[in-house]
Structure to design on (210 residues):
């Protein structure tokens, strides 16, 4: 399996972005992430309004908008890690129609830990690098170690919106997890260890799926 097709599931704040970067580096696949694609097009007019209207409230952007983003990205990729999609059953069914997956992995993290991670998260406005005010602070407060850019809090990482995103996850995305589990396809990864520990477990699961 030189170019794996991996689906990385997990609640907001579980570490999907960090672990996707590891997968990209190790397996040279495309990182397909609806969250980043939507953030880059927040004010794009669609027949359902702009993504911003949904994102800033912590709600899901309508399926037709995200389905189109994913279809175009997967068409261009040999192997990929898909992160942030599917987030409801209808997106999971659509994904089934357009591709076959080699591995479906879930990063498992407790809700309280997720809230701490989300509200403390800071991202670089320039290069997108991730920090945490307590768990992984930059050398100089508010400044990116990588590129010197300004560190900001995402609009949807405030406590109120983060809580809403976790509620939306439990309501809409938990059925997606149940669906893959019932199909016998789901591999659970303990997402509460250090990033290196989580990566060791995830990498082993990818090698097993080969
Ligand atoms: P993320 O960066 O994955 O946490 O996504 C940020 C926001 O983008 C979410 O709270 C949603 O508003 C929107 N979003 C990302 N992926 C999807 C998706 N697959 N379906 C609907 N909305 C999405």
């Amino acid at each position: 399996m030189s170019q794996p097709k991996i689906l990385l599931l997990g609640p907001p704040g579980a570490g999907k972005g960090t672990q996707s970067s590891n997968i990209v580096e190790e397996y040279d696949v495309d990182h397909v992430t609806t969250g980043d694609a939507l953030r880059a097009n927040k004010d794009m007019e669609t027949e359902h309004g702009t993504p911003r209207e949904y994102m800033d409230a912590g709600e899901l952007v309508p399926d037709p908008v995200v389905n189109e983003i994913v279809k175009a990205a997967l068409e261009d990729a040999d192997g990929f890690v898909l992160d942030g999609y599917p987030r409801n059953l209808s997106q999971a069914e659509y994904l089934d129609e357009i591709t076959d997956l080699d591995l479906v992995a879930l990063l498992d993290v407790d809700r309280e830990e997720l809230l701490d991670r989300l509200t403390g998260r800071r991202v670089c406005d320039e290069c997108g690098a991730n920090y945490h005010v307590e768990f992984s602070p930059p050398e100089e407060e508010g400044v990116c170690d990588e590129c010197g850019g300004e560190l900001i809090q995402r609009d949807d990482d405030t406590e109120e919106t983060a809580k809403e995103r976790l509620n939306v996850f439990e309501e809409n995305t938990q059925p997606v997890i149940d669906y893959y589990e019932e199909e016998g396809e789901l591999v659970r990864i303990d997402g509460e260890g250090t990033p290196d520990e989580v990566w060791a477990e995830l990498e082993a699961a990818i090698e097993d799926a080969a």
